[in-house]
Specification:
By secondary structure, the protein is an all-alpha fold. It has 11 helices and 2 strands. The chain has 2 domains: 97 residues, no CATH class; 158 residues, Four Helix Bundle (Hemerythrin (Met), subunit A), CATH 1.20.120.
């Protein structure tokens, strides 16, 4: 999915139209005589930045006819010099191109509650992504799915985020997994096997002499494994095996729980 700010697109178009309206007033004030006169540099300079920004927005949402007109008519015309009449005409045609292109484009409206989640994502999750960078993409995907009203997809991506957290925890604990007598990477182990191995590692370490610092680390590891076991039983198994469908509040609860788990891991890693 692609994030597109319609407000900025409209604002750029309005800024260009304001400059063109200045040209219209000049032409009307001269009874049409100024139509063939060149556009002054100050007006051309005012249009330029907005035109380039509008071009970038047209490129983002594939408004190909509008983008081509900007490239072939506007940019070239302003660079070489254009008349009042030509600028007015080309702007009218540009709006027509935008209207025609938009007939074949589809946009999704995101309610304010979803927009708040998206806009605050980096601020809330930034420290976690720094510590566990592999989790960023699925976190963003979960947030987009929440904004779009796709609760099952939210839970699915949230559990992927949690799995990155589980792998991070297992790596910190130097957990080693095997299958049929052969060592396997952590990412190839099931949640149940990784969690069990983490808990076994904690219990084995408790039997050794331990000071306050070591006890603190063991508590951290044990709580992390408990977080994972809870999420496995409540969400992970259900979403992985299509046992349940979720509604928005449930999906938000899952995402918030995963955030709490990941924040706990990131804070404990420092």
């Amino acid at each position: 999915m692609q994030y597109f700010n319609v407000c900025h697109f409209v604002r750029a178009l309005d800024m260009i139209e304001d400059s063109v309206n200045r040209c219209v007033r000049v032409v009307e004030g001269s009874m049409g005589i100024a139509r063939d006169q060149p556009v002054p540099k100050d007006i051309a300079d005012h249009i330029g930045p907005s035109l380039l920004y509008l071009r970038a927005k047209c490129l983002e949402c594939e408004l190909s006819n509008a983008r081509q007109r900007i490239d072939q008519k506007f940019v070239t015309g302003l660079h070489r010099g254009t008349t009042f009449g030509e600028l007015i005409h080309q702007f009218s045609e540009l709006k027509r191109d935008i209207d025609n292109d938009l007939e074949y484009r589809r946009f999704v409206f995101i309610p304010s509650s979803g927009a708040q989640v998206l806009d605050g994502l980096a601020g809330r999750w930034g420290a976690i992504w720094k510590e566990i960078p592999a989790s960023e993409k699925d976190t963003r995907d979960a947030a987009f799915c929440y904004a779009l009203g796709l609760p099952n997809a939210v839970v699915f991506h949230a559990m992927r985020v949690a799995e990155f957290g589980l792998r991070h925890l297992a790596a910190k604990m130097k957990v080693s997994l095997s299958d049929k007598g052969k060592k396997i990477p952590i990412e190839y182990g099931t949640w149940e096997k990784v969690i069990a191995k983490c808990k076994n590692t904690v219990e084995a370490a408790r039997k050794l002499p331990a000071g306050p610092k070591k006890e603190h680390r063991l508590q951290y590891y044990s709580r992390g494994a408990d977080h994972c076991e809870y999420m496995k039983d409540i969400w992970r198994n259900n979403i992985s095996h299509a046992r349940k469908s979720y509604i928005d509040p449930e999906a938000k609860a899952a995402l918030d729980r995963v955030y709490a788990f990941m924040e706990f891991l990131a804070a404990g890693s420092s």
